[in-house]
Amino acid sequence: xxSWSRAANCSSSSTPGTSSTITDRSVIGDPALANGNGVxxxxxxxxxxAAAIRAAELRAEIVLPRHRNPPDGDGGPNHWxxxxxxxxxxxxxxxxxYGTADGDWKPSAAGW
Length: 112
Hints:
This protein is α+β, with helices and mostly antiparallel strands. The chain contains two helices and six strands, in the order H-E-E-E-H-E-E-E. It has helices at 3-9, 48-57; strands at residues 12-13, 21-22, 40-44, 61-69, 79-85, 91-95.
C-alpha cells in the first residue's frame, strides 16, 4: 500500500473549535525518508493574505504558490491555498475560508 493510500485510509473526526482525533495509527509515508513524508497539515485562516505575507517574511519554503482550489470551475472548496514546509519538514497548507476564491483576487505587493 502506498503512503498516499495509507493517508487516505486514515479517518478523523472533529467538530469546529475542537481538535481532530486520528483513529488509524498506521505509518504514513516512508519512515526511511525525512520528516513530513506523506503528511499534509491544513489550516483555514481568516486573513489569507496576511498569512501568506507572514510565510514570506519567515522565508518558508514554498511547495505550491498561491492557487485556487479547484483550479477552475464550480464546486470544491472554492478557496485559496499556499503550501509551505515548516522547519521540521512537514507540508503545511494555509487555506482561505471556503467560498472565498471569487476570482476578484489580485496579487499584493508581496507577489501573492
